[in-house]
Design the sequence.
């Protein structure tokens, strides 16, 4: 394997300490060279569009990862029309990094319940290392019920790729809700991200 790259997709609406801490932990555990944060134009798994627009989410991610030399942000999903399918993004980065690169896609344990319905999930599992991370408030990842849909070999691959990330009980929904009623969120995200949110008046209603 020439190099290892971690791809971390999400809505990041807004990015918070939970995202950054689990990403740091995954980077250490996998011994990867870099991690790319990829804000989705629209998640196929969420009912609505993100509240903040693409450029604002890219800016907030950039502010949150300022001191992290191995982190970068990509706007590749924002440039595509339609829902942001992970398989398309994996193929985009595969073309960039080449066949011998190890490509790891991070997702939190909250995604396990929807995994069987993901767009071309079998091909996705075959073409990268889909790494499910621990997440506060969710069961330790268990894929046993997926064997019928995905097959034993793919389920084993998912099990081998589970990453024991620290449990950080933060989510963007709660941050948006708190900001809308003027509550304090300063312990949930980077001060520079909060400053940007206030300056732009994001999530205020
Ligand atoms: P929302 O509350 O708006 O649904 P979120 O906090 O879950 O947002 P997303 O941007 O949707 O954040 O998450 C992107 C990815 O990061 C997802 O795979 C999600 O499971 C994972 N993730 C987010 N927060 C955490 C956390 N605290 N611990 C582990 N994984 C997380």
Sequence:
């Amino acid at each position: 394997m020439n190099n290892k790259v971690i791809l971390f997709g999400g809505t990041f609406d807004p990015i918070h300490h939970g995202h950054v801490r689990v990403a740091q932990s995954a980077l250490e555990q996998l011994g990867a060279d870099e991690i790319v944060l990829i804000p989705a134009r629209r998640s196929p798994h969420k009912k609505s569009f993100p509240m903040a627009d693409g450029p604002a989410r890219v800016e907030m991610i950039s502010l949150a990862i300022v001191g992290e030399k191995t982190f970068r942000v990509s706007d590749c999903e924002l440039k595509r029309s339609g829902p942001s399918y992970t398989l398309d993004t994996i193929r985009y980065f595969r073309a960039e990094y080449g066949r011998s690169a190890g490509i790891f896609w991070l997702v939190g344990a909250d995604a396990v319940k929807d995994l069987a319905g993901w767009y071309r999930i079998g091909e996705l599992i075959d073409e990268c290392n889909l790494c499910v991370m621990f997440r506060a408030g969710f069961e330790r990842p268990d894929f046993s019920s997926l064997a019928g849909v995905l097959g034993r070999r793919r389920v084993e691959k998912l099990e081998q790729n589970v990453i024991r990330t620290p449990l950080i009980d933060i989510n963007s929904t709660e941050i948006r809700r708190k900001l809308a009623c003027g509550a304090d969120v300063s312990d949930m995200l980077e001060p520079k991200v909060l400053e940007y949110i206030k300056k732009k008046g994001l999530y205020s209603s």
User: Anything to note?
Assistant: The mean pLDDT is 95. The beta strands are 4-10, 34-39, 71-73, 102-108, 129-133. The radius of gyration is 17 Å. The pocket of adenosine-5'-triphosphate is lined by residues 10-13, 18-19, 22, 107-108, 110-111, 133, 135, 165, 168, 170-173 (CB under 6 Å).
